Amino acid sequence: APSTSIPPSPRCWHRGIPWEPGARWTELGCQSCTCQGGQVLCEAVSCSVPCSHPLPAPAGGCCPTCTGCLHEGVARAEGDVFSPSDGNCTICVCLAGNVSCLSPECPPGSCPSPSPADCCSCTPEKCHFRGRTYAHGARFSLDGEDCTTCVCQGGEVECSFTPCPMLDCPQHQRHLGPGQCCSTCRDPPAPAGCFLDDNGVEFPVGQIWSPGDPCELCICQADGSVSCQRTDCVETCPYPIRIPGQCCPDCSAGCTYMGRTFSNNETFPSALDPCLSCICLVR
């Protein structure tokens, strides 16, 4: 009987390179290829990563490596001990691609002043002051005195006076009332008269005087201010006589003519014509 034989599987040609049947290789782009029955079959490389913080694949590789750790974007070598970026005194270690972190165990206790840089949190001490106990950070006033503010800080009490506002009145007008912490300004006393700075004279309220001009009269007001008013002359005559210290001219005392004063019914020669005679007539 004639014998039968299985023909050998053909080779695979891929990008000009011959590959034996059953051969397996990796192409660029992490493609895994194999030669089967003269055909090249390729598929994406499947990576099995048995660690929690693998490092990126090295140059020319497709799968991440567990010979180190990648934590918060920073590559850590195998066995490296480090602290995370958020601090809190936590210690981390890189082992076989896995990162394990441990926080310190702090015994219970108290501290005088907690610091953010301390690894262990602490409970601030309470304050014992004048027979009372205050928690850390508590603010209180002394017994019966609201002018002093106290605060408990780590077992110690610090007291300070309540700040007072600035006053814009002189010292002799300031007043501290009973039960008050800060002084206040008194109301200025009512003026007893009008004081004139130019000559130093003080006039009582209601006083009337002339400041120098006979046609101007001033009066001292109740609030200490001075009110002045000028006098309007209503009487007129063609030849008035001006009396020193008097505001308005006097038309009943006589006549003023060419710089001379004549009494009523007095006759005198004219200064312009010696043949003329003049008489002062008050009307």
UniProtKB/TrEMBL annotation:
<dbReference type="InterPro" id="IPR052080">
    <property type="entry name" value="vWF_C/EGF_Fibrillin"/>
</dbReference>
<keyword id="KW-0325">Glycoprotein</keyword>
<dbReference type="InterPro" id="IPR001007">
    <property type="entry name" value="VWF_dom"/>
</dbReference>
<feature type="domain" description="VWFC">
    <location>
        <begin position="67"/>
        <end position="128"/>
    </location>
</feature>
<dbReference type="GO" id="GO:0005737">
    <property type="term" value="C:cytoplasm"/>
</dbReference>
<keyword id="KW-0964">Secreted</keyword>
<feature type="domain" description="VWFC">
    <location>
        <begin position="10"/>
        <end position="67"/>
    </location>
</feature>
<dbReference type="Pfam" id="PF00093">
    <property type="entry name" value="VWC"/>
</dbReference>
<dbReference type="Pfam" id="PF23334">
    <property type="entry name" value="VWC2L_2nd"/>
</dbReference>
<protein>
    <submittedName>
        <fullName>VWCE protein</fullName>
    </submittedName>
</protein>
<keyword id="KW-0732">Signal</keyword>
<dbReference type="GO" id="GO:0005576">
    <property type="term" value="C:extracellular region"/>
</dbReference>
<feature type="domain" description="VWFC">
    <location>
        <begin position="125"/>
        <end position="186"/>
    </location>
</feature>
<feature type="domain" description="VWFC">
    <location>
        <begin position="192"/>
        <end position="252"/>
    </location>
</feature>
<dbReference type="GO" id="GO:0098586">
    <property type="term" value="P:cellular response to virus"/>
</dbReference>
